[in-house]
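Input chain follows. Return structure tokens only.
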Amino acid sequence: MKTAQPMGLLAQGVTTWNDWRSQAETGINASPSRRINLREAPLKRAQLRAVNLSLVDCCMADLRYADLGHADLREALFYTANLSYAHLDYANLTGADLREASLHDSHLRGALLNAAVLTTADLTRSVLREAQLKQADLRQASLSQADACMVQLTEANLAGADLSGAILYTADLGRCNLASATLNQADLREANFAMTTLQDAVMHGVDLTAAVCSAANMIGAALHGANLTIANLSLTNLCMANLSRACLEGTTLIGANLIGANLHQARLRHANFENADLREAILRGADLRDANLRFADLKMANLSETNLKGANLTGADLSHASVWNANIKEACLIDAVMPDGTLFSP
């Protein structure tokens, strides 16, 4: 099929195109080798609302500023296509190939992108509110400053992606792969990261207020200055994570792994570290007033100059911990193992 024929049909309007697709669909879409060819098509500012371009080859097409709202783009090919500033609100892009596509400043509100391939795609400043990207492949993609509030990213692969400054308020990123991703200054309030991989992620200054990160893998994550107020990090693996100067006031860290974690000057008032593993953790200068450290393992931890006023250390193990100049006024040390290995004696 020649390129001129489908382009001519598109020029006659979406209704004509869709009628033709409906009549010829069985023959045209019989196999991927018979995709309609719109490669390199000049469709800048095209009015294609509700068009049926499913399975169409739009690789390298120019779709800047095009209106593709509510369009059927299932399994379409958009490899290296230019969709910047395009309107794709509520479009169906399930299984679409958007590798290396330019989607910066595009509008994808409510769009379906489940299982879509967006590796190294540029989604900078895009609007993805309420979009669905379940099991989508976004490795090395850029979502910097994107508005992705309430987006569904369950089981998506975002390894190495750039989400700096992105807004992901109440987003669902459960069981995602965000290994080595960059999320500096991102708004992650009330987001779901349960069982998500964030190993070696760079998350300086992120806002994770009331986020759910339970059972997540955050080994080596960089969270300097992050806000994790009243977040849930129960059973989370934060081994060797950098939480220096972070705020974890009222945060739940029951059973969390914080071996070797850096919590220097962190704000941990009312945090719940019950049964947490804090061996060799750096807590120098941290504020742990009224924190719950019942049965926490603090062997060889650095608690120098730490404020533990009113903290509950019942049954905690402080063997070989450094408590130089620590404030333990009014702290509960019942059955605690002291730095010298002896049980606390009031």
